[in-house]
Amino acid sequence: MFVLVLMDAQNCSILNWNVRGLNNSARRKVVLDMARDTRCTIACLQETKLQQVDSAVVSETLGPDFFQNFAFLPADGTRGGILLAVHASYFRILSTACTSNTISALIQSNCVPSEWWITVVYGPQLDAHKLEFLHELRQLGSISAEKWLIIGDFNLIISAEDKSNNNLNMRLMGCWNLLSAARRPTRMNSGDNRDTCSGANSSVNV
Q1: Is the pTM of the predicted complex or chain greater than 0.70?
Q2: 167 φ, ψ (degrees, to nearest 5)
């Protein structure tokens, strides 16, 4: 789980978390408490395990300020699923687009004249599907505007230091490095660790 603070003038505080399921009220309460504690204004939740998300679920998970502006990617059975929601006082979602592993949204600030794209990712776990996933990201990078943030759980290893053993897929690592060199997206791989990233403007072109 990460909290990313960007663009102070826009009051942009992003909660990025692989929640490992929102399919019960107890788990939704945990996420609600975290959203309130972090005072996030944008929530990017992966692995919701929900095939349907409505305003009641969003309100129960993030609070009443988020249920008016959200988008979701349905889970495949009980696997995957993404929820992207923004605080109505600070942002609006103008348009959205989905692939099999991502949600992209055009975000408009209510505080300053600014629009930018965000893509929330939940990458596949099987290596056989990861090359197709990277191709999806490459296509998104070719059509997205300069103001683009990509965030989420990529389920990828991009350097040997990230791996506890020598079982590395060098081909996938090479493909990711090519993608990063092309657009230099910000990558945040959510997990059980709870880190705070503040003042990261230099890594995101917004």
Answers
A1: yes
A2: -85, 80
